[in-house]
Amino acid sequence: MNSLLRSKGFIATLLLVPGLIIILGVFILPMFYMLMISLREDMGQGAWTLASYAHLFKDTYYVQILWRTVRLSLYTVCVCLVLGFPVAMYMAQATPKMRGLITFLIISPHLISVVIRNFGWVVILGNNGFINNTLMSLDVISEPLRLLYNELGVVIGLSDSLIVYMVLAISTSLYAVDSSLYKAAGILGATRFKQFFSITLPLSIPGIFAGTTLVFSLAMSSFVTPALMGGTSVKVLPVLAYEQMMASLNWSLGAAIAFLLLGSTIGLVTLFTKLVETKRYKEVFSS
Amino acid sequence: MTKEYDVELHQIRKCFGSTVVVDDFNLQVERGECVTFLGPSGCGKTTTLNMLAGFLEPDGGTLTIKGKPMNGVPSNKRDLGMVFQTYSLFPHMTVAENVAYGLKLRKIPKSEIAARVNKVLELVKLPHLADRYPKQLSGGQRQRIAIARALVTEPSVLLLDEPLSNLDAKLREELREEMKRLQQELKVTTIFVTHDQEEAMYMSDRIVVLDHGRVEQIGTPEEIYQRPASPFVHEFVGKSNRFQVKLAATDEHLWHFATKEGILLQADRHSRQEVTGDAAVAYVRPEHIVIQEVVGDAPPPSMNTVFGIVRLVSFLGSIVEVIVECHGQLITVRTGIAPHLHLVENKFVQLSWDSQHVSAFPAKEA
Amino acid sequence: MIREKKSRRPSVLGIITFFVVLMVISPLLIIIPTSFTSTGVLRFPPQGFSLQWYEKIFDRPEFIESFGFSLQLAIITAVIATVIGTLAALALHKYKPRGSGVISSLLLSPLTVPALIIGIAALLFFTRIGLAGTFLGLLLSHILISVPYVVRLVYTGLSTFDYTLERAASILGANPLRTFWDVTFPLIRPAVLSGCVFAFLTSFDNVTVSLFMISPSTTTLPMAIFNYMQESLTPLVASISSIVILLSLVFIFILERVYGLDRLFGSNSHAH
């Protein structure tokens, strides 16, 4: 009687199995295995211990790196927000055609490897790069500015690759704002300045929130940009994890760093969510 | 009776979870007949059609098409034609490809496919659209192509799932006329599902009225309209005035009823459902009520006659609809245009009807 | 007042937008002229014109080899991830099996964890089961990070698909497989193709996961460039990058044509 229903469930299962095998075998299981390695001695074989984690917090070296990672991520969020918000506002007012063009232009570089994008920045920011050459030929400076291989370089590189998320998140929330609100505010006597603070900004909060958490999480875990544009002097958690894994071959410490990275990102994003999602926010924006 | 039926439903039953959506559905459809499933949404008509099509399996009962049991047979092996509410033309195929698809699956030679596609497109009067894509057609054209696609394989049964409900009123009339013509010309056994009673009356040889998964009545359009088998059918098909009555007396030919307000009704007993107990409902159709002007004071109500005040007059083209308030109840009357009648609001009128036009049913227990 | 607002506001915002867009695309734009420099120093504006840095690519077999290897890897990844992801999306959207909410978040879960962490976890686990440093290990990890995108793109593509079309085909006599090939697949092809191209680019661009998966015999092009850049910065990187940029542009235009980049990333903004 239920043969058809049962066979439908069977077909669905059959179609899902390959995907689930990949997810379980290459992701879920390895994550648990990594957790075990970080918590047990002798590559997950020996006694349970928190030694790896204790090691991370005993030494201010690691805490400093964690703080630097968080700080650089926050800088990146700020740059993305300050530069991304006007772009999103412009897109919200622009014609659909213009909107499509801007979207295409800011997304397409994202589909090219970050290694190559970072290389482009090296050409722009390097001692012989575009900016230093231009400024020196204009006699503004006599010595090349140090724009690379420091925290500035990392923030520039990260902002470049992550601003797309901020722009798209904010513009999506601005597209949803009814344009008649501006007319209503205008008739009531609000100036453009007032309209921005009473309509645009409050109604874009969900977009800002989504963009901020996304950019922050991605910045926290990025490896290539800090490695290529920060050089050896700007060490962040992902670079540290890579070194522990591949150079020092201290895998339990590497695993612990991975979890420290994951935990601190999730913790900070959760904290931020708690701060933003007040009662009023939920009442206004929960659909 | 060893008559052959194209479609037979025997005690069909379907449940979704714990709700019974179709129960004890019995029906036999003769070759060439057009049978309509009529009822409000949620009555089980579409569910039954889906079981016929093979999209759903019945939970009980047997389903036969052309004498072959169909339980468990997938829809692609049932040899059916179907027209859907949303047209469901394949958007990536031209009109001709859409129509040819069923023939191609039957591995019919190319030359024959072309000829048959041409023929059926001519039948729906759209041969010039063969190379268009569905997107380039109007709603009415799309539905005609959908009909052509369903007919081209010469299916044993044609299923129509509210095929007209997405079209505007004028197109709907035009298309139903054409569908009836095609159905009669090709003599294809047809099951038609609709919630529109006028469409049902127009199209069908027989109508199955459904409510809450139960068959209320099966009959010709005339039977359904003139002799509704249940209060539901009476109220769903056509307009009715409903009277909540008590049985006052019974004689050989008539029931005698009275409403709380004192309206007296007589109903013919013959071939009607027996009224037992004293509570009943009685119906009179608006067009069976005769309306007359009254001069002077209101006489007391007598059998099948009431007096009242005109509250609303609406002109509906060939007829006039009048709403009259009698003893606190509103009664709808439909009458032809009568020049001698001067119907205006607040006019005092007399309404009367014949006892053969009163249908009575035992009241359902509340 | 309103009119004044309309004419003035875009100009300020427009200038900022122009500079942001310029900032985002300039790193790529600047690479191409740099690659034609005739000197050995990486500088901009470049000096002279020559094709010598393109010729020099041939002196570095590791770039040629890794380019071919990356291409192969990306194609195999794209094909497998597309098949797996499309099947899963179909199962979720069409059959809505019990627990489909859990299953879909499971299928999308690799997007919620940083790629670096996925790479480390995979390295540890693959070492244990003997897949570390093998082609299969690298391939599996690339499939893993591509499948979620395919699932999401195809799932979104299916949301506009009308299942009565499948019923119509079935009534006309098509069996389930025929129905899929004749009706369902042609209509979701744009979404599947986009998923495939996106999977290709995901694999072809990846560094963060590859980092932990490669061996000397299985080095991808981005990894080769990454490693080379850490030792020396010559215009050679510019010439190789230019080739990759042009190749990627082809795929990007396909994506834009077939699917629309805005739709691609519109749903992406929920990934953490």
TrEMBL record, chain A:
Keywords: Cell membrane, Membrane, Transmembrane, Transmembrane helix, Transport. PROSITE patterns: ABC_TM1. It comes from the Bacteria. CDD domains: TM_PBP2. It is a multi-pass membrane protein. Signal peptide: none annotated. The chain crosses the membrane at residues 12-33, 72-92, 104-126, 152-175, 196-229, 249-272. GO terms for cellular component: plasma membrane. GO terms for biological process: transmembrane transport. Residues 66-272 form the ABC transmembrane type-1 domain. Its main location: membrane. It is found in: Cell membrane. Belongs to the binding-protein-dependent transport system permease family. CysTW subfamily. This is ABC transporter permease.
TrEMBL record, chain C:
Residues 67-255 form the ABC transmembrane type-1 domain. One of its GO terms (biological process) is transmembrane transport. One of its GO terms (cellular component) is plasma membrane. The chain crosses the membrane at residues 12-36, 69-92, 104-126, 132-151, 191-214, 234-255. It comes from the Bacteria. Keywords: Cell inner membrane, Cell membrane, Membrane, Transmembrane, Transmembrane helix, Transport. InterPro entries: MetI-like (IPR000515), MetI-like_sf (IPR035906). It is found in: Cell inner membrane; Cell membrane. SUPFAM superfamilies: MetI-like. The keyword Transmembrane applies. CDD domains: TM_PBP2. It is a multi-pass membrane protein. Belongs to the binding-protein-dependent transport system permease family. This is ABC transporter permease. It comes from Paenibacillus glucanolyticus.
